[in-house]
Amino acid sequence: MSEQNWQEKHVVFYDGDCGFCNFWVQWILEKDKKDEFLFASLQSDFGQKFLTERALNSSEFNTLYLWKPNHYYLIKSKAVLKIANLLGGIYKISFIANVFPKQITDSIYDIISKNRKKLANQKCFVPDHNQRKKFIEF
What we know:
This protein is of the alpha+beta class. It is built from seven helices and four strands; from the N terminus they run αβαβαββαααα. A hairpin with a 3-residue loop joins β3 and β4 (about 70-75). The model has no long low-confidence stretch (mean pLDDT about 85).
């Protein structure tokens, strides 16, 4: 993928060993009608580079990151809400959650994150040919 194409995408960094996380990646893939997103596991070389360059913890994978190259990156609940907004349609209603302080929405995120491996089984997600193109270092 060319550098120019990277500028136009949002990269979702997720825990590649988490069934719950993989479920949501698959869900985003299915809803991404505007082709907004690329994906990389935090464990991948690309994910590790992203974390290291920003002095973020590179050994714990309980945080979702959304990165718009050369613009911003968001974490936890702010990343989730931005993803919903970018998906558009009915998911834009998630903007309502922005009335709550970040401490509250991140606390809810942290509770879910702490229990994420109990919330979904560890089934293997196998993307189809077109979906595979959206993964960085799959």
